[in-house]
Specification:
Blueprint (H helix, E strand, L loop, with lengths): L20 H16 L10 E8 L5 E8 L2 E2 L1 H10 L13 H13 L8 E5 L4 H11 L16 E5 L5 H11 L3 E5 L4 E5 L4 E2 L1
Parallel strand pairs: 1-4, 6-8
Antiparallel strand pairs: 1-2, 2-3, 4-5, 5-7, 6-7
């Protein structure tokens, strides 16, 4: 079973008197998809696949989460599980824009759909986030209001791709926050406001 994107539509007939409601809704749905997936993989009929491997437990997920302009619930569920807090086992609904951003990043690196992204950290429960922050202090880069706790962030590496190249590709996309941690061996990517550190 597939679900479509839910998009709010605010009709302003005084500004658009010549458009029918049906055409307006259709245009908003297409525009909403374009805003969420601003690249060729989400073209009508295309599919979006994401393959990840958790470096802590060696679990892998390879799932199609969108096809033909619609989300695939089973694929989303697999990715939510794969991106869970590996310390506690807690899951959350990961931001779909983050999943799309990771696909776009993989494509920017000119890798195939089945190329795995190594996951250092995905969802982080409030308990895990607080423990990490307490263990290393605020200077560790663990934010008290981390995007990880919202399901909007990942810390990643990509096998065969230098950290410098991964960082450059993430910066070029401008899809949200990008953190560069060469000493720790990963790049942080999130769908919060555009910023870098």
């Amino acid at each position: 079973m597939q679900t479509t994107l839910d998009e709010r539509l605010v009709s302003q007939p005084s500004r658009l008197p010549d458009l029918s409601r049906r055409r307006l809704i259709g245009g908003a749905a297409i525009g909403g998809m374009a805003a969420l997936f601003p690249f060729k993989a989400m073209a009508w009929g295309g599919e979006m696949r994401l393959a990840i491997r958790n470096v802590h437990n060696n679990e892998s997920v390879d799932a199609v989460f969108a096809r033909g302009g619609q989300f695939v619930p089973d694929g989303l569920a697999e990715l939510n599980h794969g991106l869970r807090d590996w310390r506690t086992g807690e899951t959350t609904m990961m931001d779909r824009r983050l999943l799309a951003l990771l696909v776009q990043l993989r494509e920017k690196l000119e890798l195939t759909g089945r190329s795995k992204i190594d996951l250092i950290s995905g969802y982080r429960s409030p308990h895990t986030n607080a423990a990490l922050r307490a263990r290393g202090g605020a200077h560790t880069g663990v934010a008290s209001q981390s995007q990880h706790m919202l399901g909007k962030a990942t810390d990643i590496t990509v096998p065969g791709v230098s950290l410098e190249r991964l960082h450059g590709a993430a910066m070029a996309l401008g899809g949200g926050g990008v953190g560069y941690y060469p000493r720790d061996g990963f790049v942080h990517v999130d769908t919060g406001r555009v910023r870098h550190w």
